[in-house]
Every structure is written in C-alpha cells, then in structure tokens.
Specification:
The protein is α/β, with parallel strands linked by helices and about 725 residues long. It is about 40% helix and about 15% strand. Helix 4 (about 80-100) runs antiparallel to helix 6 (about 130-150).
C-alpha cells in the first residue's frame, strides 16, 4: 500500500509538472500565435482590437485550441522543435487565409486542402510571378529554419513518463473539445455557419478551421428512423397526387446509366450558325415558327418535353443593385430586358466570391449545402466515391440525354470524375473546344459556349438536359488599368472607390457576357425544337460589397431568368438554388425523383428544412430507406467531349528545312489546341494546326528508325491529366 501511495504522489507530482509545462511551453506561445493568426484573418489591427474587446472569451478559447494542438510536444524529447512546427503550421493557416481573402470572400477552410491541385492550375491568374517566387522562397526559408532548429533543439533531460504524459495530452484535447459543446450551448460559439465569412469573424479562425476539418458530411437528424422516412414519403405521395391528379411516378425505378451513342446530324452545323446580333431593342416572340421539322428519334414519349438548358454564369449579377453607383451605359442591357419580360426573381446561392461548384451542386442535386459541414465541397468529400440523386438522373428516366459544358479545365473541382456520379452522359470542357478566345486575365470568353450548346443539341437524339458553366467573369480582378478601350465606365460610391479599376474590368466583362447571352437566346429562338433556358449567376464577385451597399440587401442573392422559345406560364418568384431545378421541372409538368417531388410539394411546410435534412441524410449517409435500402443510381460511363477525336493517317518526314520544321504530321478529326500526339506511349511536343491536322517537333531522328509505331492523340489540360485518348493507330514503314 505504501508503494502505491508513493507512486500516486509521484504521478500527481509529474501531472503537476505537465500542467505547469503546458501553461508555460504551450499556452503562452499559443497566445502570441493566436494574436498573429487573428490579425492575418482580420487584415487590420483595429479589427483585431474590436474582436478582443467584444469577444474575449471566444479569443481565449481559440488560444486553448492552438495550445491543445501543441500539447503533443510533451511527448517528444525535442519539445521546442515540435512546438515550433505546430505554431508554424498555424501561422501558415493564418497567412493563407489572409492571401485567399485578398482574392475571394470565403475564408480558408480544411476542405481547401483538397483543392490544392486545382488551385495550382490557376495560381498565376491571382498572383504575379514575383509573388509566387516570394512565397516559394519564404516556404523554403521556413523549412530550412525548422531544419536548423531541429539540429539545435535541446532535448529535455531524463525520461518522459508516457503513463502520465499521454493521459494528460488526451485530457487536454478532450477537455478542449468538450468546451466547444459548452460554448455552443450557451451561445458563445456558432453551431451552424450560414455565412462562413461572418462565422470566422465571430468565432475566430482556429475554431472555425478545426470545425471545418472535423465537421464534415450531414449530422444524423434527431429521430431518424425508417418510420420517419416513410412518413415523409407518404406526405410527398399524397401531395403529388393532388398536384398531378394521378398516382405519383415511381421514385425507385431503374435509371439508365450508360451514355447513349451520339447520332450525328446529317451535316455539320456551320461555324457561323449563330444568328447575327441585331441592333437596337431585341424583339423576341414567345412562339417562333420552326424552320424545319425535327427528325424522329425513336422515343416519342419524350417529345412532349422540351430541351432543358441551365446556364450558370461566373460571378454574374446586376451591378445596378449597388447603391449610389452609376454606369455610362447599362452593363447588361439584354439580361435586364429578359428580367422584365420573362419569369425571373432572386436565387439564393450558398457562397460569395467563390464556391462555384457548391452552387452547381445545389442546382444539380437539389440539396441544401447548409446541411453539410462548414466550407465543405461535396464534389471533393462525397461525390468522388458515390452517386447522388440529381436532376440529370431524374430526367434520364424520361429519355433525356444529359450533358455538362464548361469553358475551363475539365479537372477543376474534379468535374471529370464527379459528373459521372451526378448522372451526366457527356462532359465538354475547354480541352474539347476550338476557335476559342481568352480575355485579358486568361479566362476563356463565354462567346464560345453558343456553338458548343448548339452542337450538343444537334448531335444527340431526343431531348437534352444541358448544364453549362461559364468562366469569363472570374477574378482576380486587376487593381491597375488593364482594358485599352472599355465600353462601360463606372462611378462608385465612396466606400468602393478603391476598387475602381477592378469594377471597371468587371463590368466590361459583364457587358461581353451579356452579348453572349443575346447571341445564345437569338440562336435558340430559331431552333426547331422547344427549349427552356435558365440563366443565373453562381455568386457575387469578391469586390468589397456589403449588405448595406446593395439595394436588395443580400450578399447571397443573384438574379435568375427562365426563358423559352415557346409560351411558358410562370410567376416571378424568389428561390433557393437547391429549389431551382425542381421549380423549372414543375413548370414543365415533370415530377421524377424523391428530392424533386419533395421540393415541388413541401417547400411551404413549416418543417421543410427538417424534412430535407432527414431525406438528405438518409440518401447520402443513412440506410437509403427512401430507395428501399438500395441506391438505384449507378455511375455513368461519362464521355469526355461530344465529338470523338480520331486519327486517319500519319506522315513522317525524313528531311528538315530547319530544326523547328516538323518531322511528322497526324491527320484526323476533331483535334483542338489541347490535343497531344503520343508515339509508342510517349507524349511529344505537339503543334495544333487545325481540327484535322497536328504536327510534332523536336523528335530525335533516332526515335523514328523503328519499323512499327503506335500513334494516339490525347486530350489533356494544364495539369497534364489525360481526359481521353484515341484508339491506337498502327503505322508501318514501307
């Protein structure tokens, strides 16, 4: 007994030592680190001071979070080195947040770590070469400093008693996590992050960042059970019968998953097929006379439905909503005309200044992003591994072919993989587009999208659902004069005067995007099939806007318009992004899929959001009771591009006029600037000459001495990820 008492006293003594060491070695450095991190997050000393003054307990809790992550240093002999590594990582998080906030409104979250590959492909558009070099030098210097510190760090004397140190560290970490629950219960910390930027300011960067790291997916709702799900489904079925006057469509039916074979039109549409832009006020009629009869497709049951086109416009909103701002001419005259003459309203989107993929997800899947973790991107955390009910899957039941178009990298946000789990048959990214133009910041102009949309409409039999994502309005917007002859000049309120050149560039991009909308609508007006076109912005631009500066008083609202080339009765209505697809389908008397029917029947219910969380959790993380326990949606065989590349011949030259003179030519079909010649599995430098001709240069003649070669052509973007490759072409020397 005496020995146990002595051991107990010894443990208590060591526990006391651990506590004192924690307070001295971890808490004090964490205090300094937290001040630095919050200064970076708020980008001003006055902002930091107000935070400390208004939320002292929240600040101290954030200090404890940093200290709790640093407590692991007590488990290592080189304690000071491990402590510095932890504090260095927090400093990097703070600096990264500051850099990102200079380009967008959304703070740095853990999910952004999954987007590093995508971010690297566009980093040069946000940072000058000097800044990139500076960041690299700073990181190298920091890692070199840590290496020196590791070499020189003194080891603590004596042995570490892990029987005391490990439980102490676990107690500190568990206690810190427990305090977060207490903080949320008393209202000091936010439980839900509706406005991510505001949440970071109110709750502190360490708490919000750790929350985004640990809190992902959808929380299991209270009361989740098969009976609850069946109850919601029963309400949907009853309400749907009242709407349609007939039994509800089968919500668990078989879904076609294979991409149908494209049937080319008899003749290729000419490049100048788009209707020329008229001058003056546009005259659009609801019911234009068709120019030709559409060809039968063998699917008469789908002919009653129109083609459905969604066009998500990058950073697009009406700048006339800015209080006390004026423009030399309306930056978006055609969109203004559409708002006045067609069904329209505000659509609430889940982010500001960034997060295109999340608005996309809400519109395609009909699911509320607020149900997921703070700052989460389902494209990166969920949809790479599993399928998800969506508008494309629902429309495929009616014979629709489903396509996505994006005039940017096909791998950005992992769309080349994710679109297969959302039910798309085809994905046409910039790597499959020809005759393209880029704006002053290097983003592809949206004018290319008209012919791509028409190309899909003509190449696929039956009705089409086409989801198009534009990119021209993307930032970061220049802080210096960049445009030579801007069409639109802007006068800003005093609060935004420092953003003059950024707004000047932005509104002129809007003007060009508006011309594209006019060209697209006039082209579709004369299209021989019924078409519904839904236009909306994905989010507001990151340009210093606040609710007080906006006429509508909401940073999360953009405009939408529903245009059609036939008469479509609909009232103006404000919607959430996750309701938009179901709303449009309801106007067309389309009621397929659980989520679509839910939005069409339950949007006015008091417990609408609670029921939505029940369904979303059940479908994505629960027992799939809504589907009878089995996920009916299978991943599609996503086809990249609508016109497959093909090699028809190879010509090898054995004489060169100059060193830069090509040694071989590849002829074929549908090549683009992103096509790359591959010889026996090895890519070679390729020159794009036209859609039927590629050339290869700088090939050692010794590599052309074989008797047999296998040629292919790959489509790959700036990240070198291969999106597709032609069949191998056998070349044999005579």
């Amino acid at each position: 007994m005496k020995n146990w008492l002595e051991k107990g006293k010894d443990w208590l003594y060591q526990l006391k030592g651990c506590t004192l060491t924690f307070l001295k070695a971890c808490c004090l450095p964490a205090l300094v680190c937290c001040l630095f991190v919050e200064l970076c997050s708020r980008t001003s000393v006055s902002g930091l001071f107000l935070y400390l003054l208004n939320s002292p307990f929240v600040f101290l809790y954030n200090v404890l979070i940093i200290a709790a992550t640093a407590v692991v240093c007590l488990l290592f002999k080189r304690r000071s080195f491990v402590l510095m590594v932890v504090l260095f990582l927090w400093a990097v998080i703070g600096v990264t947040d500051m850099i990102l906030l200079s380009f967008r409104t959304t703070p740095f979250t853990a999910v952004d770590l999954l987007l590093i590959k995508s971010a690297l492909t566009i980093m040069n558009r946000y940072m000058s070469p000097f800044m990139i070099v500076l960041v690299i030098v700073a990181l190298v210097a920091a890692f070199f400093g840590l290496f020196i510190l590791f070499k020189k760090a003194k080891k603590v004397e004596g042995k570490i008693n892990y029987f005391v140190a490990l439980p102490f560290c676990a107690l500190v970490i568990a206690g810190t996590m427990g305090l977060s629950g207490l903080g949320m219960s008393v209202g000091l910390l936010d439980r839900n992050f509706g406005n991510l930027a505001q949440a970071f300011h109110d709750n502190g960067l360490p708490w919000c960042f750790m929350n985004s790291l640990l809190n992902t997916g959808i929380d299991r709702p209270d009361g989740y059970s098969p009976e609850e799900i069946q109850g919601v489904l029963g309400e949907i079925e009853e309400d749907m019968q009242n709407i349609t006057g007939s039994p509800v469509p089968d919500m668990e039916g078989e879904v076609p998953t294979q991409a149908p074979t494209a049937t080319p039109a008899p003749t290729e549409p000419p490049e100048e097929s788009a209707t020329p832009l008229p001058t003056g006020e546009p005259e659009l009629t609801q019911t234009p006379a068709p120019t030709e009869e559409p060809e039968p497709t063998g699917e008469p049951e789908s002919k009653e439905y129109p083609n459905i086109l969604f066009l998500q416009l990058e950073s697009f909103f009406d700048p006339k909503y800015i209080e006390n701002a004026s423009f030399s001419t309306d930056p978006i005259p055609f969109f203004t005309y559409l708002k006045e003459h067609y069904p329209s309203g505000f659509v609430s989107v889940p982010s500001i200044g960034a997060g295109t993929a999340n608005t996309e997800f809400e519109c395609i899947a009909g699911m509320n992003l607020d149900m997921f973790g703070p700052g989460e991107y389902p494209y990166k955390t969920l949809l790479k591994d599993r399928t998800c009910e969506s508008i494309p899957y629902a429309l495929k039941k009616l014979g629709y072919e489903t396509s996505a178009i994006h005039n940017n990298d096909g791998t950005f946000y992992g769309r080349n993989e994710v679109f297969a789990t959302l039910g798309f048959d085809y994905f046409i990214s910039q790597e499959y587009m020809r005759d393209t133009e880029f704006n002053e910041l290097g983003w592809m102009r949206d004018s290319v999208l008209t012919k791509e949309i028409v190309k899909v409409l003509r190449k696929t039999p039956g009705q089409d659902y086409i989801y198009t994502i534009s990119v021209q309005g993307h930032g970061a917007y220049p802080e210096e004069p960049l445009l030579e002859n801007p069409v639109v000049d802007v006068r800003l309120p005093e609060e935004l005067s420092e953003y003059y050149y950024q707004y000047l560039y932005y509104v002129n991009q809007l003007y060009e995007m508006d011309l594209f909308l006019k060209e697209l609508v006039l082209t579709l007006t004369a299209y021989p099939e019924d078409v519904v076109l839904v236009l909306y912005g994905d989010h507001l631009p990151s340009l210093g806007l606040s609710e007080a500066l906006l006429e509508n008083g909401d940073l999360f609202q953009t405009d939408y318009v529903i245009w059609s080339n036939f008469e479509l009765e609909a009232e103006d209505k404000d919607l959430q992004a996750y309701q938009l697809g179901a709303h449009v389908c309801n106007l067309l008397d389309i009621h397929e899929g659980v989520m679509m029917q839910f939005h069409q029947t339950a949007a006015e219910d008091e417990d609408y959001l609670e029921k939505m969380q029940l369904l979303m959790y059940d479908m994505l993380y629960g027992d799939m009771e809504a589907y009878g326990g089995i996920n009916p949606y299978e991943k599609t065989d996503l086809v990249m591009g609508i016109e497959p590349q093909e090699i028809t011949n190879v010509y090898i030259k054995y004489m060169q006029v100059s060193e830069s003179d090509p040694l071989l030519y590849v002829t074929g079909k549908n090549f683009t600037e992103w096509s790359r010649i591959v010889i026996n599995g090895k890519e070679v430098e390729t020159i794009y000459l036209n859609s039927q001709l590629l050339a290869a240069v700088e090939i050692p003649k010794s590599e052309l001495d074989e008797e047999i070669y296998y040629f292919s052509v790959r489509q790959a973007g700036s990240d070198d990820i291969v999106l597709s490759e032609t069949a191998k072409y056998l070349y044999e020397k005579d």
